[in-house]
Every structure is written in structure tokens, then in C-alpha cells.
Amino acid sequence: MVTEARFKIRDFGRDTWCNSVDELIATLRSRYATKSVSVQYRTKATGSSRVVFVDVDPDAIRHSYQDRNEVDFCLIESEAL
User: Fold this and answer.
1) Nearest of 3, 27, 44, 42 to residue 52 by alpha carbon
2) Which of 28, 36, 45, 71 has its CA 20 to 30 A from that of 64?
3) Would you kindly state where each structural domain of the chain is located, as residue ranges?
């Protein structure tokens, strides 16, 4: 298991680590299509862990809660340690 990767996709024990946002998006689309999972990463500002709950829909990766807008991966990239 890789523990130095920046992002962790959590899926009830079937977790996957990704090193970049591009890898994260590709992995979500290929391995987690039509599923609801969470993405966990550490923030630059505080080093604390942030979790984003997402639905991997056929047309987009959306927030599971809130307004169901598409996930802003540029924001995640800028926040991630």
C-alpha cells in the first residue's frame, strides 16, 4: 500500500491511492464509475484531513451532497498538500 500519495479514494475497504489530480480523476472514472465514494487529502493550510463525498456519474463527478454540482478539481489541487 502506498501511503505517500496525495489522495485516497475510500470505498469501504477497497481504497486506492493517487499521486495527482489527473490520476485521481482517471481512477474515479475507470474503477468507481456509477459509485459513491469519498476522496481524502491533507490540506496545505493546516495539514488537516479533508474529505469530499462524490458520486461518479456517467457524465460528471459530482458532490454527493450540497447542490450536486461538479467537483472542482482545480480547487482540490490548490488545497492539497
Assistant:
1) 42
2) 45
3) 7-79
